[in-house]
Amino acid sequence: MRAQLLDGSARGVLKTVRRLGSLQMDPIATVATPQRLVLFSRLGPYHPGELDRLLWKERKLFEWNAFIYPIEDLPLIRARMRERWGHYKWQRWAKEFMQEQAGLRRYVLRELERRGPLLSRELEHDAARSDEQHVWWGTRAQLTWMLELLHRRGRLAVVGRRDGQRLWDLAERWWPETETVPLPEARKLLAEKRRRRLGVWWEDGKWRAYADIPGDPVPDRATLLSPFDGLIKDRARLEALWDFYYRLEMYVPRAKREYGYYVLPLLVGDRIVGRAEPRFDRKAGKLELLGAWGDTSRLDEALSSLAEFLGARI
Q: By CB count within 10 A, which of 53, 108, 127, 203 is most buried?
């Protein structure tokens, strides 16, 4: 709990991201996007524009591969960007795709150098379109994959959002120059950061605890957790340490759901005591409660704080 800053000790968005190491991003915003909800669970009602300011104006945070990192970790992440394609099926496909679509790659880099930053829809090329309709990316899957792969390799950076869409530019124009860290050293340092933010982890057949984190009692505060929260993301660890079974059921057919579409665990002190399914109706400006389960005696407190953060009424 203390390793994850869920003890009420979090102070400010930047310090919180630095301590957590990263924020997982996702466009799902039934209540709020995961990256914003994770911060709320630790900070309470904070100014929602603070994250954007740190990302796009001050550049003290950066986005890579659907995660937000502190800028001082860029040398470690760049080591991962330089990593060779491996032998997994998707990695072999990615390597072949980059070779086969060399013309599209050159076009994207040239246009961004000349006109960037740009949205993906502002890039047009014969090779960008596919004859088949992709379930997520329509007929422009080729361009989407090219942007994603160039981003993973550190050639492109996300430099902002426009109407929720990513703005792309050359990474060399956006990210600062950094030292070069060898991949083995980067992996070691990132693993150490991971252990610190987990606090407790399973290794070599036993549970291990990070030594420098105080073990005194956690304050009795109530909050709701994102399904992508670092405290609960490892479902096996969650069951072993908290005796709490949790699965995100948004992709489960309605008739087969045990709880609901987007259910949030309820944390009180150092215990996960229940779960709730809130939904933010943005047009009406109202935070609705669709269902609740378990011990919900402190749920009103958590919902009131969440509504304040969203600028919603209950």
A: 108
This prediction has a pTM of 0.92
Angle at 5 between CA 42 and CA 65, to 5 degrees: 80
* Three-state SS sequence of the chain: CCCCCCCCCCCCHHHHHHHHCCEECCCCCCCCCHHHHHHHHHHCCCCCHHHHHHHHHCCCEEEECCEEEEHHHHHHHHHHHCCCCCCCHHHHHHHHHHHHCHHHHHHHHHHHHHHCCECHHHCCCHHHCCCCCECCCECCHHHHHHHHHHHHCCCEEEEEEECCEEEEEEHHHHCCCCCCCCHHHHHHHHHHHHHHHHCEEEECCEEEECCCCCCCCCCCCEEECCCCCCCCCCHHHHHHHHCCCCCCCCCCCHHHCCCCCCCEEEEECCEEEEEEEEEEECCCCEEEEEEEEECCCCHHHHHHHHHHHHCCEC
What percent of the chain shows pLDDT beyond 70?
95
Chain-centre distance for alpha carbon 273:
24
pLDDT in tens, 48-69: 899 999 999 999 999 999 999 9
What type of residue is 166?
Answer: R
Buried residues in 283-297 as b, exposed as e (16+ CB within 10 A): eeeebeeeebeeebe
Task: Please give the backbone phi and psi of residue 99, each rounded to the nearest 5 degrees, phi first.
Answer: -75, -45
